[in-house]
Amino acid sequence: MTPGERFTRRVRTALRREAHGLLHAGPPTMQLMRPLGPSVPDDARVQQVLDLCMRVGEVLLSSGESVDETTQTMIRLASTAGLSAVDVDITFSSISMCCHRGMAAAPVTSMRLVRYRALDLTRLEEVAEIVQRVERAELDVESASAALSEAVSAPHPYPRWVATAGWAGLAASVALLLGAAPITALAAFLVTGLIDRLGRLLNRWGLPSFFRQVVGGLVATGATLALFAAGVIPPGTRPSLVVAASITVLLSGLSVVGTVQDAISSYYVTSAGRVMEIALLSAGLLTGVVLALKIGFTFGVALEVAGELPTGAGRFSLSLLAAALAAASFSLAGYARWRPLLAAGLAGAAGWGTYGALTQVLAVGPVAATGAAAVVVGIATGLLRRAGGISPLVVTLAGITPLLPGFTAYRGFYQLAVEGLADGLVTVTVALGIGLALAAGVAFGDFVARPRRPAIPTIVETAPSEAERQ
Predict the structure, then answer these.
(1) Cα separation of 272 and 257, whole Å?
(2) Rounded to an integer, what distance in angstroms lies between the CA atom of residue 84 and that of residue 37?
(3) Nearest residue to 391 (alpha-carbon basis) of 73, 135, 4
(4) What is the largest CA-CA distance in the chain?
(5) Which listed residue, of 100, 256, 329, 454, carries a Cα 20 to 30 Å from 163's Cα?
(6) What residues have CB less than 8 Å from 149, skipping those under 6 apart?
(7) For 153-171, what is each residue's pLDDT tens digit?
(8) What does 294-342 look like in DSSP terms, one character per residue?
(9) Domain coordinates in residue numbering, the chain
(10) Model pTM score
């Protein structure tokens, strides 16, 4: 037998022995047959669901929704779509979401940056409706993704000039709410409309928001000084209320409520980021107002702070109407449809009515009265979460707008520019307290009245029992 034939024979013998061993091997153990983790969809399905949840979270967060509500909405949506073991992490300008798949497969993580802040209440309502339809099993993931793309890319329901009219109407309503004369309210309307168009132009040029706030405060005060010096706003008509109303409009875009809600819900990183944003934008507003006041003093024109707000039964009725108009105007500026406009107006009237009754009848301080009024708005928000049909954020943002401390903030700015640092800091601190009372009251009222949802089930891996091992 040649060496080649001997080698071939040895290889065949080895192969026969290996095949014999495989055929007579015992069955695999139960431990090897046991699943290594929860049963989850494949990678493509996981990516689809995560993308849908991330896009929904982006719309909610950019619209000013709190981190807690955004997180819970994303988790519920993922659970409905079949991903029960997910984690969501939000840090002010970024959203991360991870789907855990036990030991069967590697986790899938996705991240998205929130690069814009846009107030579009109609888009917010449409996204909330898409989430509800997914939870009711009326839409699958593919259809929900298509509907979401259509809602996000759709144009605003109104032309841009309607939003400008909404901001201007908000300023005029706030001026009437503070006791201004009709000519002063008209001036507030025109000045705020100018600020909005100028701010839109500067935003298109890419100017940072801090400098836009400086320009807004400068234009609000400077234009009022010019109208007062020219005699368009006659003496005795409280022209400083034009600045106070414009400051209220500029403050309405700050996410004070979401900041406090994040802090209460233990989302401290996001809350700290929002606090920094609010502080920076408020500093820009302060800079613009004080700079314009200094320029006015140079030319011998001053806008003294108006006296106490007028009271009385007739004045209270007019204030209720002005508060309702202010809240509705804010919703119109946010592109809300007609039904949310009515709900926002009612919330604004309810909040201001509570504030007026506490301050004028019971002589309650402004901070405590504002907090109590915000609780009323928060309860209305929680009830809307139960009823559905209207986004609760519409009522939250619009309902507190008449209560924003624009008048107190202007008084503090004026004192910082004229009367000294000590008095100005005290008044600015009062304005800050009013803002915090607003946010805390809304958060508490919403917590009391919102529906109690069952906890999201969590899959817990346990060790195999003795029977499973055998």
Answers:
(1) 13
(2) 13
(3) 73
(4) 126
(5) 256
(6) none
(7) 888 888 889 999 999 999 9
(8) HHHHHTT---PPP-SPP-SHHHHHHHHHHHHHHHHHHHHHTT--HHHHH
(9) 43-153, 160-449
(10) 0.82
